Amino acid sequence: MKILQKLRNIHFLSLMGTGGMSVLTFLLTAILYRSLSIKEIGIWFFFQSMLSFLDTFRQGFLSTAFVKFYAGSSPDRGQEVIGSTWFIAINTTIILLLLNIPLIAIVFYIKDESLLFFAKYYSLNLICSLPMIVTMCIAQGDLKFGRLMYIRVFQVSFLILCLGFLILAKHNTLTNLMYINILAGGITSMLCLILGWSGIRYFANRTKTCIKEIFDFGKYTVGTSISSSLFGVTDTFVINFMLGPSSLAVYNLGRRLMEVVEIPLRSFVATAMPALSSEYNQGNKPKLISTMGKYIGIITIGLIPFLIGAFIFAGYALAIIGGGKYNGTEAGSIAVNIFRISAVVALLYPADRFLSVTLDAIHKPQINLYKVIIMVVINIITDFAGIYIFGNIYGLVVGTFIPTLVGILISYYYINKGYQNFSIFNSYFISFIEIKKFISNGFKSPKPISN
């Protein structure tokens, strides 16, 4: 029982929620690669990448800003923040829906299957997921990561069950897959409303002042939110239009293995913002920098053995996800190599993510926005240059190293210049010493990343 009580902390629950959803996503991906053609898979993942990117703009305005103003507030203030967040969420969704009008006109001129599929269905997905998105913001602000886990796992589990039914009934087409995807989001949102988790009842508590506060902060924090997904979106566009949907399916198969990195990163980023914001609000600069350094150092070092194992057994993992039809093929070999190259670059990800979160916590969200714009421009240039030089996907994957490194240098410079001097290399060294002591003490009494 004592072990279970120790495990019931925000870091573990966040990791379980992210990990549980990722395992289910692995299962869903494996089923898709076995039940659809490689071209259909490319179209499906183009849709998912674009939908995720657009939804990131909505969540970027909400999640970080919501936690910033909601965490630790009084009940009245909390209700005001929830109501104001609902107002922004609804209006952001309306704006994104209006983008569909010119997109449809453009699609009929381009006549691209992937874009046409996206234009037809992204509006319904945005509408059906709205209550679920706000509910997840509230759960994070309340540090109810168990609730977050329930929401995520339910949505993906429902989708997998419906997909299984379609396969048994031999109706597993792209269109039917989209219908059950919309249904999964809609039912999950409906449950959030029925259970009272969404906070929609506080919509009347919104105020112009609070809406302005959240908007002014959120217009910059959207930069942090899109930084982790923007590379994938630009890569998806370049591959889809230069190499075709089939190449995109192979690329996604290789990148899907990177969930080994994304699972701990997403879970710890979710817990980092409340911790860093609390330390900033208390004026404790040394503690904030120390906490940030531990997140960067411990997670980076912790990733190394997992990446080594994944590097060695990438072929087996590919067979599990993609099925036997990729074994011994050129497409399978390319997918494995994509993962191995990405695994090396991924060692930079913890520094990039947690330096970005720190900039938000110390009220420098505008730096993240400018940084992301620079990174996107560099990423697009390296994408085209990589494909032009190498003539294949490898050049694009190798090119992701440059914008990631540039992003780290920009964040590092502004935190040192405008807030507190620190050494990122010292973060790795101190974290290594702490991990070494923890192991030598027989894995007893580990120090938490933050209080």
What does this protein look like?
- By secondary structure, the chain is mainly α.
- The protein has one domain.
- It is 84% helix and 0% strand.
- The chain has 19 helices and no strands.
- The radius of gyration is 22 Å and the shape is globular.
User: What share of the residues lie within helices?
Assistant: over 70%
Strand content bin: under 5%
Total count of strands: 0
The string of secondary-structure elements, in order, is HHHHHHHHHHHHHHHHHHH
Please give the alpha-carbon distance between the first and last residues: 22 Å
- Low-pLDDT stretches: 1-7, 445-451
Derived from helix and strand composition plus strand pairing, the structural class reads mainly alpha
- Choose one word for the global shape: globular
Write down the Rg: 22 Å
List the domain count as a whole number.
Answer: 1
**How many strands, which pairing sense, and closed or not: the largest β-sheet?**
none
Average pLDDT score: 80
Number of helical runs?
19
